[in-house]
Design brief:
11 helices
Length: 291
């Protein structure tokens, strides 16, 4: 039995969607650094090492820290290769989970396609975050839409995967999974499509049991920061290099708001309350005798 079934396991946040290009890896990295900067011990796990965006992002960050030093906080990063057989992948994933004892948070990035390893990992999540672009193409992963009535006919394949993951976790340890669909790369214009997508998501949320949260807007800075492994939380380092802008500060607020919307503050206080600490995700500190 892996240690995630024991009391005191880290809060597991899994970024999942069977469609690629929705910003899973970017959001996972930015959230990881936000939590590191709040004083949490964070482990990151890449199940999509063939694409490798999450691993390259963490690697770029480690390389920058090695070159320039400074207070660049790093997660402990793990890779589970997709080239293994399903059984080998499960064994390797369980081995990684056992190594996460003592961490506060584990953030897992999964591939944008169906795989046995990704199925298995979903059932170990405390929180599943599914970023989608504001597009009917992305909605199709969650539910089938009637083109005439423009209403949701039935849940789609990925929604069924979440349902099965919830069942597996309930059977294994009696716990539930909080599922949040994040509207990512949203246009700042109130277009008709934006309202329509919002209406469909509200309908689906009631039918298949997820919460809806706003993610990050379409900003160039999220792409610019990748090569140095920076995130919008690295305000001091960005300022030193003369790269801090109003857009960076607005983006940082977006990430803090997302962390609050994910319910991480109350979840972390509950999980780690026995240590006497309080969590302040918005203010940028972790208060109490946490180390």
């Amino acid at each position: 039995m892996n240690k995630l079934s024991a009391v005191g396991h880290p809060t597991v946040i899994l970024f999942g969607n069977e469609k690629g290009g929705t910003g899973k890896s970017t959001l996972a990295m930015h959230l990881a650094v936000l939590l590191l900067n709040r004083g949490f011990m964070v482990a990151t796990v890449d199940l999509d090492s063939r694409q490798g965006t999450f691993t390259r992002y963490t690697g770029n960050r480690a390389a920058y820290a090695a070159r320039y030093g400074g207070n660049i906080l790093l997660s402990t990063h793990h890779i589970v290769s997709p080239s293994m057989t399903p059984e080998e992948g499960k064994l390797e994933f369980n081995k990684v989970l056992d190594e996460l004892a003592g961490y506060d948070i584990a953030i897992i990035d999964t591939p944008g396609h169906d795989s046995a390893l990704s199925h298995f990992a979903h059932s170990y999540a405390d929180v599943i975050v599914t970023p989608i672009n504001d597009s009917l193409i992305d909605i199709d992963v969650l539910g089938v839409v009637d083109p005439i009535k423009q209403t949701v006919l039935r849940p789609s394949h990925y929604a069924e995967r979440i349902w099965k993951a919830r069942q597996e976790k309930a059977r294994r340890c009696g716990s539930s999974i909080d599922w949040i669909v994040v509207r990512n790369r949203m246009s700042q214009l109130h277009a008709r499509n934006k309202r329509f997508v919002g209406s469909l998501l509200d309908n689906l949320a009631k039918r298949i049991g997820f919460r809806v949260a706003d993610g990050i807007a379409e900003r160039v800075i999220y792409r610019e920061l990748f090569l140095d492994g920076f995130t919008v939380e690295d305000i001091a380092a960005l300022n030193e290099r003369g790269k801090l802008s109003v857009s960076h500060i607005a983006a940082r607020q977006e990430l803090s708001s997302l962390a609050m919307a994910l319910g991480l503050q109350s979840r972390l206080e509950k999980a780690h309350g026995s240590f006497g600490g309080k969590v302040d995700l918005e203010g940028g500190t972790r208060i109490g005798p946490f180390k």
